[in-house]
Amino acid sequence: MSFSKLNTEGVMLFEQPFARVPYENYRKVFRTSQKAIEKELGAVQNVANELIKKDASCSDADATVRAIDGMISRVEGLKRKLSDMHESAGAPTLNVIRERLQHLGSVEELESSSSAEFARWADVRLDRWLVDWSLRNGKEKTARMIAQQKDIEKLVDIDLFSDIRRIEDALIRKSCTEALAWCSENKAALRKLKNTLEFDLRLQEYIELARARKSVEAIAYSRKHLLQWKDTHQHQIVQATALLCYPPTTSCAPYKRLYDPSRWTSLIQSFRMAIYHLSTLPTEPLLHLAMYAGLASLKLPACYSHETRNVDCPSCNPDLGQLAKEVPFSHHLNSTIVCRITGKIMDADNMPMAFPNGQVYSKEALEEMAARNDGWVTDPRNPDQRYRFTDLRKVFIS
């Protein structure tokens, strides 16, 4: 029973992004609400302080009434704004958080990994990972179809990846506008992480002005958007200033690199890393991370030799083997030998039998072969070599 006991902590290792993404989304809603409250109530407080300071005998009653009406109007406007924000963003995000926490909470009530309830939970998890993989690889229609068919829309981050795809598509079109708008929305978080994506985007817009030989516009743009970064990016700003002296066809290495169109690809990668970091998403699909864990327990040097591959071993599969190259070889205290004919494990009840040439197969498989061939057996790897079943020797696993 101990072998089937559910390791809840191990299951939860993959679930941090699952819970954190909607939490981070709600933090954004909270910060926006907080800014609106501080702005409007700050203005109301200032008006109230001015009214208190005025001499009651000299004050204009009509002006006071208008000021109070203005304060009431501001507070009512703030109430409507907060209500709309709650309905459009706050409540849906809270529903997603509630749904996901309930989904995670259900697994803590399960005791066995072999139970039917855990199998159903694991199926939902696999569907989530398939949606995540589809979204990361630009297959949004497939992701939406899986989410709708499996009724897991609240358990996947389709909207987040739609925003990522929208901004990346704009960068592919050589437009930084959408990415800069995202940087503006997340300025405080990016500053806390010391992320330089905004500067890189501003520098790229400056480079495009230089590429178009719009020197006046480039200088004005530099003064407005680049000089504020002079404390941390002095060298790059100086180099960018000198870029105006070099045409896009220059062969001078530092400026040729600045004009290189591949900088747009680097910007896409930088943006993706930044939004993954802010959303606490791993840089690789969760499906890959789970497969890494499984492949690391199976991978052996024999998996990469054509002669020793096992058709039933996942890491021997050419495609999965490519993924397994990134994980270390497995370490087993006790050997497990699998028959290459039947795919069954060889043990005391189905012991290994060795040919004179050293090839080993299971007793069960060779007995069946001998029964079909009047006591003769053939090595599948060397069909020309036939032996009597009685010539084979037993192999004992230590």
TrEMBL record:
Compartments in which it is found: Cytoplasm
Record domain RING-Gid-type: where: 313-382
Record carries keyword Metal-binding: yes
Major localization class: cytoplasm
Zinc finger (RING-Gid-type): 313-382
Domain CTLH intervals: 161-217
Keyword Glycoprotein carried by entry: no
GO CC annotations on file: cytoplasm; GID complex; nucleus
A single GO molecular function term of this UniProt record: zinc ion binding
SMART domains xrefs: CRA, CTLH
GO BP: any one term: proteasome-mediated ubiquitin-dependent protein catabolic process
InterPro entries in UniProt: CRA_dom, CTLH/CRA, CTLH_C, Fyv10_fam, ZF_RING_GID
Keywords: Cytoplasm, Metal-binding, Zinc, Zinc-finger
Pfam family, one: CTLH
Family under the similarity heading: Belongs to the FYV10 family.
Name of the protein in question: Macrophage erythroblast attacher
Lineage: Eukaryota, Fungi, Dikarya, Basidiomycota, Agaricomycotina
